[in-house]
């Protein structure tokens, strides 16, 4: 969308379907060029001056229509489409897709297996908490995980609400084998900020990259 005009994705914005399809086509070209098999299909914001409840049904209908179009196109490219709930309490008050429950209900209505949930634990904690149950409940839908400590949105070992060693072990026990995106703002240097990962590997008797010494 047009970021200068305050847009943050278009997939659920009524009247912007043509622009969504054009942007999706460009995104597919970029993804193909760099070998990225997943594309985040951003829902977008409730239009300014509009009551969220008054436009909820129309925005959901638009979202479903655009997601079906995207799923068909992405299936031809052997790609996955992702939808991410973003909290509207702190980060983006006007963003349309806010909870994993809302996202799961929409994905069920769309009905395409190559559309998945991009679960950012920062947003999920702010909106709902209950992370263990949410991870277990929505695990079959999850196509990507993102992390950040709450409330500061820094490294997972920074002070905050979330016990990330527990969460990582839970993901392992569930059989998650995808990437975990570091969707946080480093407090200082990026590489120094990855010290939490080295510490976690050491605590789990793993080498860099997650290879078990015992397995070797």
Structural class label:
alpha/beta
Strand order of the largest sheet: 1-2-3-4-5
Total of domains: 1
Overall pLDDT metric: 94
DSSP summary, beta strand count: 7
Order of helices and strands: HEHEHEHHEHEHEE
Task: Bin the helical content.
Answer: 40-55%
Overall geometry: globular
Sequence stretches where pLDDT stays below 50 over 5 or more residues: 212-216
- Note the beta-strand portion: 5-15%
The main β sheet shows up as:
5 strands, parallel
The CATH superfamily label reads Divalent-metal-dependent TIM barrel enzymes
Domain Xylose isomerase-like TIM barrel: 9-199
Keywords: Isomerase
InterPro entries: Sugar_Epim/Isomerase, Xyl_isomerase-like_sf, Xyl_isomerase-like_TIM-brl
Protein name: HYI isomerase
Characterization of the model:
The chain has 216 residues and is of the alpha/beta class. The protein has helices spanning 17-34, 52-76, 100-110, 121-127, 131-138, 164-174, 195-203, and strands at residues 38-40, 80-83, 115-120, 142-147, 180-182, 206-207, 211-212. The protein has a five-stranded parallel beta sheet. Strands 6-7 form a two-stranded antiparallel sheet. Helix 1 packs across helix 2 (52-76), helix 2 packs across helix 3 and helix 5 runs parallel beside helix 6 (164-174). The protein is globular.
